[in-house]
Amino acid sequence: EDKVVQSPLSLVVHEGDTVTLNCSYEVTNFRSLLWYKQEKKAPTFLFMLTSSGIEKKSGRLSSILDKKELFSILNITATQTGDSAVYLCAGSSDSNYQLIWGAGTKLIIKP
Amino acid sequence: DTGVSQDPRHKITKRGQNVTFRCDPISEHNRLYWYRQTLGQGPEFLTYFQNEAQLEKSRLLSDRFSAERPKGSFSTLEIQRTEQGDSAMYLCASSSGDRPDTQYFGPGTRLTVL
Q: If we measure between CA atoms, which residue out of A101, A78, A104, A81 comes closest to residue A91?
């Protein structure tokens, strides 16, 4: 059965810290790994990763995929209180592009 | 605003009533997805459409749930004879043919069944 597992489930850090969120996946006919940020509303798209070893960056956020070990990480440097959210990762398959979701990592940034 | 929109944003109903939600995807997107999300969980897939065709429906989806996308544009999700366990956030997402796995979400409809 396809599954996506995120760790940790929750994380509390202080403003300015760097955090690393983990996502491991087992998805049949794997196509891509996606990261989303969810505040008190619907998920907003962050990154889509399809190739191993190529880092994607957007400001203080970056992500990388390892297709051999079947995991991805999301890094956030110099965290700010506005980064507080649930970060979701999802794997998609070639067969139907359906996303298999992890349960999310709840990140709390303390001032 | 050209993002995904959903209506209503909130719905409170009594157990046993029927409810219907609407989703308007991004206009050029041909794929439309419905998810359900409860607190502390990731979105749970319900069903998806490519144009007007409903291509997949979750095995977990009760017969009380039905979805349509009659003209390949907006979609409706109906829940008949609601139960308290149906209380959740119902999310709609859409994606385009050239980037089918990058889904963009609407604001969601929060359903509370009393």
A: A101
